[in-house]
Fold this protein.
Amino acid sequence: GQQLNQSPQSMFIQEGEDVSMNCTSSSIFNTWLWYKQDPGEGPVLLIALYKAGELTSNGRLTAQFGITRKDSFLNISASIPSDVGIYFCAGHLSAGSYQLTFGKGTKLSVIP
Amino acid sequence: GAGVSQSPRYKVAKRGQDVALRCDPISGHVSLFWYQQALGQGPEFLTYFQNEAQLDKSGLPSDRFFAERPEGSVSTLKIQRTQQEDSAVYLCASSLRGGLEKLFFGSGTQLSVL
């Protein structure tokens, strides 16, 4: 099936630092989504991107839909302890599909 | 409640047992999805319902997996003759219409097959 390559797999940062993670695919996606998952919970949507080149912010989070439609990145500025969790990218392949394809996640640890 | 509710929260089954996992979507949500999340992996699509119609079941890994949503609200995912490789968190999500960008996930059922 389709695969999303998400990197880095994990990262340890100091509180206050900026964070960047990205996702690449061999396929073109219509929509890119970024989710955060806390332990024992389901994923929660952070940002949705619909057009190639689109740059969208949600508070300290900024995400971009790559021009080639095969990649996306997520930046978190001025990290805080509650940013800890696993971040997933997800892509929607085509208008006729009901499936989201998820990356393997980036585990973020924030050192106070 | 306000969110997607899943039960049980944890399920331990002996290999070969049948299990049934329940999902209560947000009231009024037309679309319902099941995903399987193995340890250390992202969720993987299993099946999709629009009201009571199962429009996509291409992600179900074998014919031991069966899902239903008979009245267009509550859904049940049934796994027959469980195997160890079925151990995972099973996530249910719903959305108001079909929009994949507005999925609300439940907390999942963690299934352990011994």
In short: The longest strand of chain B covers residues 88-95.
